[in-house]
Design brief:
By secondary structure, the protein is an alpha+beta fold. The protein is built from 4 helices and 4 strands. The two termini are 27 Å apart.
């Protein structure tokens, strides 16, 4: 699932809106801010923040690539109608893709944004 430009949080005011009006969850590698938007017709909007505290440009880009890859695999499980901001913490550059994905899934469940999807076996039985 590629994230089209319309589904990205890009402006400072949009990031500030999630920060000021939304809630957040902190993990070891990531901080996730989220805000419900009932008027939104798209599944969700996402913004990624990777600061220089993580490391040089190579490390920051690697973290962003890993987070986008997780979204491609797991983005269909996000509850529609929310804005999310993922902030990579200083030790995210040392994390493996598996560790980042595990924390992403944990944050989704804890925030209530995780959509329970039927497994292929349950869908075949129904």
């Amino acid at each position: 699932m590629k994230l089209p430009r319309t589904r990205r949080i890009r402006t400072r005011s949009e990031f500030a809106r999630v920060r000021n009006q939304g809630q957040s969850i902190s993990g070891r590698f990531l901080v996730m801010g989220y805000l419900a938007d009932d008027a939104m017709d798209e599944p969700f909007k996402l913004g990624l923040i990777t600061t220089k505290k993580i490391g040089n440009a190579v490390v920051r880009n690697r973290v962003r690539r890993r987070l986008r890859a997780i979204l491609q695999r797991e983005g269909h499980r996000v509850r529609p109608g929310h804005w999310m901001v993922l902030i990579a913490r200083h030790n995210a550059g040392d994390a493996t893709s598996t560790q980042l994905e595990k924390e992403w899934k944990w944050m989704l469940r804890k925030s209530g944004l995780h959509l329970e999807t039927k497994s292929s076996e349950e869908a075949a039985a129904a």
